[in-house]
Amino acid sequence: MLPLLPGQFAFGMAFGALAAQKGFTLVEAVAMTGIVYAGMSQFVILQSWPDALTVSTVTAVMLLTATVNARFFLMSASLRPWFSTLPVWQAYPPLTILTDGGWLNSMRYRDRGGADASFFLGGQILSYVSWTFAALPGYLLAERLTDPKAYGVDLLMPAFFAALLIPSYRGLERTIPWVISGIVATTVAWLTSGYWFIIAGAVAGSVSAAFILSEGNTNGR
Amino acid sequence: MAAELMRTDVMIVIAAMALATVALRTTGFWLMRYVPETPRVKRMLEALPGSIIAAAVLPVVAQGGLVAALAVLAAMASMWLTRSDFVAVITGMAVAALARFAGLG
Question: Which domain-ending residue is among A151, A178, A200?
Fold first, then answer.
């Protein structure tokens, strides 16, 4: 988790700054990070905040949040083989604060042969604390943080994601699903607006693995 | 007005967002309980992390142009050389910041 914390902190600060610029109170900004705890969707919802509170606008907020965060559904599914032996009360609470960084980190740990599920929980808690409190200085320094892009903060997650493909490499055959996923996602992103492209690509890649890869081409866990 | 710490309507929207997000975070794991782990399902689950990564990165690179491509390639190269995710992330962000400073994209 450590490699991500500085960048994540910067990302959290950027959120706090945006919330301040949009006229939210400090408590609201920190509450949103602490309760929703899903950075990308928080940025999107702040940008398209409903003018009036009605059943339909709240439904729209939930739908938009769900499409932005739909990848969490797949990430959570991918944790099944690892957490399946845990009792329910140990498996579910850490899942409620699942994020990109914590999940990626845990996948890397598991790739190296790690099996201790508390690694996932520890990383998530560290990331939770750092992200939630980053909104505070961001909010207070709002005027000076006008352009987080200048520091490359927006490319933090893509860079980390991409880097983790390197240690996940298991021979050419098993990169075919990744390529299929990337092509489908890029095409869907190009043809449609919104955030369905991650799901479309990831499902296509995963399903292709079931049919393309030869029988028995697994990690053996 | 000055003493207003949080507004009810804002908190309702926050609660709605949280509900949608936590549901996604838990139902994937829950539903897989009912899927038997055949070799085929196993291959799908093992391909899933890499596929999610590819689906999240490639469109960003395709739309983010040269700066995004440089940052992602730099992160991958540095990961390959150093095997340190910390160095990789810092390299990626630094390359992006430098490229923008230099006026690319």
Answer: A151
Q: How far apart are CA B54 and CA A186, in angstroms?
A: 10
Residues in chain B within 8 Å Cβ distance of A165: 50, 53-54, 76
This prediction has a pTM of 0.80
Structural domain tally of chain A? 2
Asked if A69 and B79 come within 8 Å (Cβ–Cβ), the reply is no
Residue B39 contacts residue A61 (beta carbons within 8 Å): no
Same domain, A41 and A135: yes
**Inter-chain contact A209–B47, Cβ cutoff 8 Å?**
yes
**Domain check: are A34 and A130 in the same one?**
yes
A173 and A145 housed in the same domain: no
For residue A185, how far is the Cα from the chain centroid? 16
Write the pLDDT tens digit of every residue in A65-95.
998 888 899 999 999 988 888 999 999 999 9
> Which of B25, B55, B90 has the CB atom closest to A202's CB atom?
B55
Which A residues, 3 through 22, put their C-beta within 8 Å of a C-beta on chain B? 3-4, 7
A114 lies in the same domain as A174: no
Alpha helices for chain A (secondary structure H): 5-21, 26-35, 39-47, 55-68, 71-78, 80-83, 88-95, 100-111, 118-140, 156-168, 176-191, 197-212
Which residue in chain B is spatially nearest to A185 when comparing CA positions?
B55
Residues from chain A that touch B72, judged by Cβ atoms under 8 A, are 155, 158-159, 162
**Tell me: the pLDDT tens digits for A135-166?**
888 888 876 666 767 777 778 778 888 888 88
Could you state, in order of their start, the residue ranges of all structural domains in chain B? 8-101
Nearest CA in chain B to A78: B45
Domain span holding position A199:
169-221
Task: Out of A94, A122, A151, pick the residue that ends a domain.
Answer: A151
B102 touches chain A (CB under 8 A): no
Residue A158 structure tokens:
């893509």
Are A137 and A177 part of one and the same domain?
no
